[in-house]
Structure formats: C-alpha cells, structure tokens
Amino acid sequence: MKRVFLIVLDSVGCGEMPDAADFGDAGSNTLAAAAKSSYFHMPNMKKLGLFNIEGMDWAEGEEAPSGAVARMKEASMGKDTTTGHWEIAGVSSPKPMPTFPEGFPQELLDALTRETGRGILCNKPYSGTDVIRDYGEEHMRTGKMIVYTSADSVLQIAAHEAVIPIEEQYAICEAARRICTGPWAVGRVIARPFEGEYPFKRTSRRHDFSLKPPKAIMLDVLKEEGKEVLAVGKINDIFAGCGVTEFVRTASNAEGIDRTLEYMKRDFEGLCFTNLVDYDMLYGHRNDVDGYAKALTYFDERLPELLAAMREEDILMVTADHGCDPSTPSTDHSREYVPLVMAGGPVRAGVNLGTRPTFSDTAATILEYLGAERKVEGCSFLREIL
Hints:
Blueprint: E1 3-9, H1 30-35, H2 43-48, E2 68-72, H3 81-88, H4 106-116, E3 120-125, H5 128-142, E4 145-149, E5 154-160, H6 166-179, E6 188-195, E7 201-202, E8 207-210, H7 218-224, E9 228-232, H8 235-238, E10 246-248, H9 253-264, E11 270-276, H10 278-284, H11 289-309, E12 315-319, E13 338-343, E14 352-356, H12 360-369, H13 382-385
Parallel strand pairs: 1-11, 1-12, 2-14, 3-4, 5-6, 9-10, 9-11
Antiparallel strand pairs: 2-13, 4-5, 6-7, 6-8, 12-13
C-alpha cells in the first residue's frame, strides 16, 4: 500500500532565485535568515540532507545523509501561496495573477457593497495586524468591513466577530470570490476575523476562498484514479476543494503535525498533503526572525515522530511554496528557491538531485510512484531516488 506524505513548510525558501531583483527580493534567503537566530536547531533535517542542498554554502552539510534532496526552482511568474501550491501540484502560472498596489478599483468595491449591504474601509495594501490596529475601532463604530490587499494577489476582508458574525464574514468572502473574475481574478479572497477590544487580536477562523486551478492538478488525477487525497491545514482552501477526498483545517503547526500523524495511522493508498502555515503567517510577515527559528526547530523536534510512524512503502516529502525572509525590511513574500527533502523506506539515501527546473517535478514524481497513468506538468525523478 503506497502512501506519500507531502508537507509544505509555508514560506521556507532557501535563497534568492536569479530573477529575485525583478520582484524586489534581491538577497532574500529565508532559511539562512532564520538560521542566524540562537533558537535555530534542525539536527534531524540536517541528517536527512537539508544542508546538502545546492546553495547552502552558509551551512555545514551531512557527510552521509539518510534522505534524498533537491533545490526546486519556481517556473511560475509569482511568489504567492496559490501560485506555489499550484505548481507543486503540477500546474504552473506563466502570467502573474493580478495585484492591486494602489487598492481595488471603485467598480469592484461598489459591486461588493451592493452584494453585502456594507460599506468599506481602507482599500490599501496593509499588514494584517496593522490594519486592525488602524481601522478596527472605526469598523466597530460603523459596521463597515475592512478591505485590504498585499503584494500578493489577494483581497482580504477583516471584521470583528462581534460586529459581523463569522458565517456572515464567510458569505461576504464568497460574494467577493464571485465578483473577482477576469481582470479582478485574485488568487485568494481571505476572511480575516478578529476579536476582543483594542488592541484587537486575529482569531484562528481565517478562511481562504481560492481561485480554481485552470486545469487538472495532481489531486484531481489521484482522486479520479481512486486514490485518497487527504488535505491538512489550508490545502483544501488553496485548491478550492479540487481533488480532495477528505480534509481537516488546523489552527497551528502543532495541530497540523498532529493531524498528519493521525492520518499516518490510517490505512489508505494515495496522498496526504499538509500545509504548516505558522512560518509565513505568524513570523515571516511580521519579520520575527526568532519566532521563525523557533517554529523550524519545533518541526525538527517533531520530525522523528513522523519518521517513526511511516510504513515500509511510505515516502515523506518536505518542501515549501515560496520565501518570506523575516530579516529584510519587506513584510511580503520573497522570490526564492525552495528545498525538497525526501525520506522513507523506498528512498535511496544520499541522492542529491541538484536544482530542478520546476516545483511540478514533485507532482510528476508522486503520480508515478502512486501508479497514476495521467500526467501533469513536470518530469518525474522517481527512478533517481528509489
């Protein structure tokens, strides 16, 4: 019974790509930045070969790594969650998704007001914590929703749960998702609920309403061929439910690892796809180097549990979707290579695949291992790692 456990450490990039300067990200290296913290400690990932990956000349590699590794280049023109995950799943995006650095057009805002009956505050690129600090009290007084964006292709709506109940917030975001088509087709519409009194605190009931992939992805192929596709964290949201047979949302990296371990105990054939978002959401965007390092150390401490729970034919793949260097002045994602570390009974120790031209090689490899006949973008490297 073949199973693959694919874990995305959200935003854990490993160095600037050649075109990083075009994205305003020259010099970014998320993993290296976190490693400068005294809280950074990843001996278990090191044993698998993490620091043997190309470009890791700032770290000491493992003499005889027990896993297989690669550095993955993003072929898509983007550096956001949706674009990165789509490419991991076998669909690249040659054109960047629309962004709105000057805010959204009035026509879009008017349509959203007509659909929801609520006014709008902000309409600017903003930090998620800063926007509720600066607009939260006015929102409480007026009932208007806080609409903002970032450098990514997102429309975000923040609202206090006592002013706009969470189900209404989700309905508002669904309306926004219907509106955001054509030139307004952002990758994600995101509900950003918060609570309490000033200074307000965001809750764990965030929900992403994603654009559907333009063609079949790895998840669709596996589902159509009768395999299980188990989604942990925000995976189901990122892919708008496409190809997912069962999902569970999580409130933290710890819960994401726990839910993945629970799926490891189950009998199934197919893929368990996990996103651990705390790196990006709590630390990368807030330029918290120590917090980022602590979160990476925590994953490394839990890694032996994951490895111990694996069965003879299981493969574990640990990768990322983009960067979010917490040490740079920017609070946005960064255009970086991402690591890929693989382990398990079928994986040949010490294999280093160098730099692969697209994240989609991961999807092609998973499909070949699980015996799927249909293909997606990318080239399988399965024979090189078995």
